[in-house]
Design goal:
Layout (H helix, E strand, L loop, with lengths): L5 H11 L29 H13 L8 E5 L13 H14 L4 E4 L6 H13 L7 E3 L6 H9 L3 E5 L2 H5 L7 E4 L5 H4 L6 E4 L23 H4 L3 H14 L1
Parallel strand pairs: 1-2, 1-4, 2-3, 4-5, 5-6
Length: 240
């Protein structure tokens, strides 16, 4: 059913595999409620914490600093999900300036290192320079990333994998949605805050149309302001 959240669909898929294949289409029973889905909570061991602390220290982040995470990419698979890089620059600057003593840390895969460098270079050219803004893009595998989540206060991310990984931790998250909808693809936990403009043309891509859209102008992402994203992140900090 295209009306089920993707998490419900995946659980239903597993349950359907154990049912009589003559009952087409499956599954002929109610799906699990989103509130009934239970996730394990990731807990890093001391060695993992020390390893990530050393990576942060090498990037210039003091051990007792407040860490604000920004994940700036949504992969090349769905360009319509991208938020302009200059908005990420603005968010980093606002968070850094509004939280004295905090450090903004960029995360991502090794393929996204050029984007991280562009963001830091742009910050360096602006007010306050790149002070207290660093990058760990390409420096963390999944386990180290989850460990970093346990050491941080908030994550700002485009619609991509990290907000879902963060559901395994207690980290508050702000996720940007445009061509897809959080009603079907939002992380399943009460710590995630989805930002979306709610345009009439959105969502235009889903698993059911093979994520193909005729759109060539993702106003649904471009219209999300850096100030609104930063304010949402700051509000999560207050709530935490």
């Amino acid at each position: 059913s295209p009306y089920l959240h993707i998490a419900q669909s995946l659980v239903t898929l597993v349950r359907a595999a154990a049912r009589d294949p003559a009952g087409t289409p499956l599954l002929k029973e109610p799906p699990p409620g989103l509130g009934d889905l239970d996730f394990p909570v990731f807990g890093p061991d001391a060695a993992a914490v020390e390893r990530v602390q050393e990576k942060l220290a090498a990037a210039g982040v003091p051990r007792d600093a407040e860490i604000l995470l920004v994940n700036p990419n949504s992969s090349d698979l769905l360009p319509l999900r991208r938020w302009p890089a200059e908005r990420f620059v603005e968010v980093c600057r606002i968070l850094r300036d509004r939280r004295p003593g905090s450090y903004v840390v960029l995360t991502g895969t090794a393929a996204e290192e050029p984007l991280g460098r562009r963001i830091l270079d742009a910050l360096a050219r602006g007010p306050g320079g790149a002070e207290r803004c660093v990058s760990l893009i390409g420096a963390t595998g999944l386990r180290d990333l989850l460990t970093l989540f346990t050491l941080s206060r908030v994550l700002v991310s485009a619609d991509s994998g990290p907000p879902h990984f963060a559901a395994l931790t207690r980290l508050p998250v702000v996720t940007l949605f445009g061509p897809e909808t959080p009603a079907l693809y939002g992380p399943v936990n009460d710590r995630n805050h989805a930002l979306t403009l709610g345009l009439a043309c959105s969502p235009c891509i889903s698993a059911w149309n093979r994520r193909v859209s005729t759109c060539t102008d993702n106003v649904c992402m471009q219209g999300i302001t850096a100030e609104s994203v930063a304010e949402a992140a700051l509000a999560r900090l207050g709530a935490g």
